[in-house]
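Readers outside the structure-tokenisation community will struggle with the description of the input data as it stands. What matters is that the chain and its backbone geometry are given together, residue for residue. For illustration, here is how one protein appears when written out as sequence plus structure tokens:

…
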Amino acid sequence: MKPFLTFCALCCFIGIFRLPIEYYTFLRILVSAGALLVLYNTLTFKQHYFSIIFLIILILFNPVLPIYLLRKSVWIPIDVVTGILFLLIGFVEKTEQKKEEEITGETSQPSVPIHQRAVSRDRIINPKKPKEENNHGK
């Protein structure tokens, strides 16, 4: 997923330049697909702050009912911020996956059933020999 999000970010940064209308149609489709993908993942992991942001991006870039802002000077900051957000979500996702792998790696160790566990406070350790052994030896 990280390469796709990086590609989306790169295309957003390229969208800053004056290009034919076909590129911006392609950009709308690409960013919408990326926003849908991120929206699904953020809702799955219950990251609602990113969900709201990418829902707004999805609405703004949707190719079905396009929103025309008519001025290139308005779209330039939107493209830059969207590209940065795609890069950010790609790197945040990578670090969160590493943390989840560490957590699951720690918990995936085979656990001993409760009835076989020996808790140190439950053990009775008698450092002295019992009196019965001392008396029988003489």
